[in-house]
Structures are given as structure tokens and as C-alpha cells.
Amino acid sequence: MKYLKRFVKEEDGIETIEFIGLVAVAAILIGVIVTIGTRMKSTADQASGALDTSMSQVEGMMGGK
Q1: How far does Cα 2 stand from its chain's mean position?
Q2: 64: phi then psi, degrees, rounded to nearest 5
Q3: What is the rounded CA–CA span in Å between residue 27 and residue 22?
Q4: ∠ CA 48-49-51 to the nearest 5 degrees?
């Protein structure tokens, strides 16, 4: 317990804690960005598939021309 109290009182200890906090925030942001990117790719893939299906139907209606 003495070590922790001394660590927190020293400036190096506070800087270490601040750095750990920044790393944690960065890790969270990276996770959020990856999740958003994955969802966007999934949505784009679904839209592409729907467009392909629609275009095939239009081509079928036009006699395959």
C-alpha cells in the first residue's frame, strides 16, 4: 500500500497513469472504428447483392439485351 501511495504522489506515477489512460482510450476508439467499418462493409455487400439482383431482373424484363 505504501508503494501505491508513493507512486501516485510522484509525478512519474501520475504521468504513467495518464499514459495508460490515453492508451486505453485509443484502444476503445480503434475497437469502435473497426466495428463501424465491419458494419459498413456488410451493408455495402448487401446493397451490392440487391443491386445485382435488381439488374438481373431488369435485364430479364428487357429480353436479356
Answers
A1: 40
A2: 80, 15
A3: 9
A4: 65
